[in-house]
């Protein structure tokens, strides 16, 4: 693959990383969010502050962590605090600008499910569960969600709401008394969805080059709204692609894969 | 007063069938060796507590030690599902597992409340989530000063907490560092705390503000070098990421799981025996 060719996952990761401004304090989920956040740190946002729920504040890992408590996070952090402190002082204390989350499933109001597929008491698939997400989604000033787009993930109705987006839409989130601003962007391998300012319904506002609107609609379990002024996502620049591929190569060398999890 | 005790005796005398037991660790310092000893001794009907149940909980659940699990994220970090946990929840094998499910913020606060000798934890949490619909232990109370609605959940007060740490001195004072998770809170929330350590030294030489658990707050300190494996102890060992990946196919199938547990845990006398047999298994694979 030459420098100016890129995969769907790469444009998703680069597009997600671009949303993270320099100096932002970001509470990072493991996996795709951690990849995008570290790419931001290694490119346009060297002063981004990455906080992981296991305790590291200001982590600057040299390779992507396989788990949320990898030694590299602790050894490169400005400080390491206890998990209760992370959730009580730093998240509930209102110090997080961006919560960066992944999800197994999402609905049109950006509520997310990471708990079960099927009924809770007799699940078809038991997923890992909430982890830190419910309070990150509720208390960060804004939330970015990154996940691949397909009909299994983008569903009309979630079997379980693990973490709140805009609930039933409109002002439902504010009425429920949830303090943070909620999701402002859902970045996928096909485009970027943002909530309508009034209805809060996710709307396709940017489409990745080479992807058709039909393709995105086909990958969505509800009748997806398309913005009147639909933009085309800027292609990843060579510097970002090089930084991403170098990071992934270092990671693969260190532990053989890029995925990640809590625990 | 914590006595320097062999792990087998600590587990045998301090953990009883039916106890509520928390083996805590947040990727780092997970007390695997102690979990194996619980399995060897055939402890039953345990209520297991853990923010992030991973491989050792998969093993405890698959071997039928647990009646109930209180948790907030159950998975194999970086790999995928816990197949024994899923089998217990989805198919009731080896028997039905009751689950009580929280968020990390809830669990972390519940341990703090337990260590603080309070009946419940108070946090701004769970709003908009379906968790309160399936967990009757998540309730909401009104702030007496502002009227704000806040979440309340019972404190976690384990009968026994087990953690792993880097060092103890000869009197049983314990020093741990790196990613500490909720281990200090979990140890102080428990009626009895067992700590396995990498080594016993003459003096801890702990800097001020270091995380030290004094001997008089602990029930037993057990020297088990490498006892977090395949988790790790910062400045002593590295996480064995390959083991976490290799666990996936072993745990997928009931028979391969049982055969593995028999060979590596039930038929080994202690943690050193486990390490020896695991080494033989790995050598056989790579031939």
UniProtKB/TrEMBL annotation, chain A:
Pfam families from the entry? CoA_trans
Question: Which InterPro entries does this chain map to?
Answer: CoA_trans_fam_I, NagB/RpiA_transferase-like
Keywords, alphabetical: Transferase
Record GO terms (molecular function) = CoA-transferase activity
PANTHER family, per the entry: ACETATE COA-TRANSFERASE YDIF (PTHR43293), CHOLESTEROL RING-CLEAVING HYDROLASE IPDB SUBUNIT (PTHR43293:SF3)
By what name is this protein known? CoA-transferase subunit beta
Q: Could you tell me which species this protein originates from?
A: Azospirillum griseum
Automatic annotation (TrEMBL), chain B:
Looking up Gene3D superfamilies in the UniProt record yields: 3.30.30.40, Glutaconate Coenzyme A-transferase (3.40.1080.10)
- What InterPro entries has UniProt attached to this entry? CoA_trans_fam_I (IPR004165), NagB/RpiA_transferase-like (IPR037171)
Q: Which domain of life is it from?
A: Bacteria
Q: Which UniProt keywords apply?
A: Transferase
Q: Any idea which GO molecular function terms this record carries?
A: CoA-transferase activity
User: Cross-referenced Pfam families, in alphabetical order?
Assistant: CoA_trans
Its protein name is CoA transferase subunit A
């Amino acid at each position: 693959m030459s420098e100016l060719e890129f995969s769907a996952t790469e444009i998703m990761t680069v597009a997600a990383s671009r949303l993270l401004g320099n100096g932002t304090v970001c509470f990072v989920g493991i996996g795709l969010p951690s990849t995008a956040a570290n790419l931001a740190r290694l490119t346009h946002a060297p002063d981004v502050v990455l906080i992981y729920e296991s305790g590291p504040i200001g982590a600057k890992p040299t390779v992507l962590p396989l788990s949320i408590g990898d030694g590299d996070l602790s050894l490169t952090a400005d400080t390491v605090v206890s998990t209760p402190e992370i959730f009580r002082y730093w998240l509930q204390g209102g110090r997080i600008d961006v919560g960066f989350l992944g999800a197994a499933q999402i609905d049109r109001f950006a509520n997310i499910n990471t708990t079960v597929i099927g009924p809770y008491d007799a699940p078809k698939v038991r997923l890992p569960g909430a982890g830190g997400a419910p309070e990150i989604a509720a208390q960060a000033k804004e939330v970015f969600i990154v996940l691949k787009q397909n009909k299994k993930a983008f569903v009309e109705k979630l079997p379980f709401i693990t973490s709140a987006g805009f609930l039933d839409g409109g002002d439902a989130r504010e009425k429920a008394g949830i303090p943070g601003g909620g999701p402002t962007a859902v970045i996928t391998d096909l485009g970027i969805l943002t909530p309508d300012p009034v209805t809060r319904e996710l709307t396709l506002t940017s489409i990745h080059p080479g992807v058709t609107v039909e393709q995105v609609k086909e990958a969505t379990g509800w009748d997806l709204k398309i913005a009147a002024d639909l933009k085309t996502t800027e292609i990843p620049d060579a510097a970002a692609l090089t930084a991403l591929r170098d990071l992934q190569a270092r990671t693969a060398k260190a532990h053989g894969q890029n995925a990640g999890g809590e625990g | 007063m914590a006595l320097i005790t062999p792990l087998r005796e600590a587990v045998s005398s301090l953990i009883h069938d039916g106890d509520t037991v928390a083996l805590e660790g947040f990727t780092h310092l997970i007390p695997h060796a102690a979990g194996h000893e619980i399995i060897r001794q055939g402890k039953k009907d345990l209520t297991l507590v853990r923010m992030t149940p991973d491989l050792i909980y998969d093993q405890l659940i698959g071997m039928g030690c647990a009646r109930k699990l209180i948790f907030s994220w159950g998975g194999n970090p970086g790999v995928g599902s816990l197949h024994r946990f899923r089998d217990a929840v989805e198919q009731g094998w080896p028997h039905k597992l009751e689950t009580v499910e929280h968020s990390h913020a809830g669990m972390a606060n519940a341990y703090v409340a337990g260590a603080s000798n309070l009946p419940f934890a108070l946090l701004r949490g769970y709003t908009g989530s379906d968790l309160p619909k399936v967990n009757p232990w998540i309730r909401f109370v009104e702030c007496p000063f502002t009227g704000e609605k806040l979440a309340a959940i019972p404190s976690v007060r384990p009968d026994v907490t087990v953690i792993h740490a880097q060092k103890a001195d000869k009197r049983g004072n314990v020093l741990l560092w790196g990613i500490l998770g909720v281990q200090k809170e979990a140890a102080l929330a428990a009626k009895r705390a067992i700590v396995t350590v990498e080594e016993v030294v003459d003096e801890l030489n702990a800097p001020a503000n270091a995380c030290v658990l004094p001997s008089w707050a602990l029930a037993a300190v057990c020297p088990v070098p490498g006892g977090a494996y395949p988790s790790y102890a910062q400045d002593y060992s590295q996480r064995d990421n390959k083991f976490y990946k290799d666990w996936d196919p072993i745990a997928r199938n009931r028979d391969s799981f049982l055969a593995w547990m028999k060979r590596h845990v039930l038929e080994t006398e202690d943690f050193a025996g486990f390490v020896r047999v695991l080494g033989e298994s790995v050598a056989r694979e790579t031939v």
